[in-house]
Amino acid sequence: MSLGQQLHPHLPFVRRYARALTGSQAHGDAYVRATLEAIVAAPEEFPRDVDPRLGLYRTFHAIWSSSHLDDADDDGDHSDHEAIARARLSRITPLSRQALLLTAMEGFTTDDAAYLIDVSADDVDRLVAEALGEIEAQTRTRVLIIEDEPIIAMDIETIVRDLGHDVTAIAVTRDEAVREAMAERPGLVLADIQLADDSSGIDAVKDILAEFSVPVIFITAFPERLLTGERPEPTFLITKPFQRATVKAAIAQALFFDEATAPA
């Protein structure tokens, strides 16, 4: 099997990670393209002594580490999301966020995360704790949950409240979601893709975003469909069935980039 064939199944998930890390589909996908270009240009440098997924993320991290600090200094070429993030970097480092996302969202073990970001396993545990503590301490908001499965909705509500956020409503259809959002504007939306009346959570979010800007995290059992890199797609995505830590990490990262919670 060729290297390209080995890496292909992992591309949607490295896109998910890159988007969450940068807070932008465009920037995240650009880093993934740069990673693939680097692999094509020098395939002999691709790590062959580890699983292809680990090698892919390791190569991504080499690209990220060598470029993102320079990007942050370029005042003429970065998104509003990045500008907001830079205002917070004094309180939480990119390395901390990487450790959190790799373990909680991407499901890597502590040892694998340590390999990917070139630190010890003990350092990964410390960085994850630091990331959760710092991000959760500086982001509090009101959350609209769009989810038609009662047990899942209750679980999400518990996680959201445990993080110190308020829940404005739990909506089960597109129309209800839009109505609830207009009644009390949330600071974050958590949206399932398929809703109770066969309406779409994506359409509900589009309707809401047409009225005001708000960060959104989508929840889906089929993440590959929204991680192609070929069209406008979600920046933050949680895969069903999810772990509580995954939801916490996604919420923290989405709010990290949200202008409404930017420090004064």
Automatic annotation (TrEMBL):
| InterPro entries assigned | CheY-like_superfamily (IPR011006), PhyR_sigma2 (IPR053866), PhyR_sigma4 (IPR053867), RNA_pol_sigma_r3/r4-like (IPR013324), Sig_resp-reg_PhyR (IPR014605), Sig_transdc_resp-reg_receiver (IPR001789)
Question: In Gene Ontology terms, what is a biological process of this protein?
Answer: phosphorelay signal transduction system
Write down the superkingdom of origin. Bacteria
Give the Response regulatory domain ranges. Answer: 142-255
> Is the Phosphoprotein keyword given for this protein?
yes
Q: Which residues carry this modification: 4-aspartylphosphate?
A: D192
User: CDD domains per the record?
Assistant: REC_PhyR (cd17540)
* The entry's keywords: Phosphoprotein
NCBIfam families listed in its UniProt record: PRK09191.1
The entry's protein name is Response regulator
> Which organism is the protein's source?
Sphingobium algorifonticola
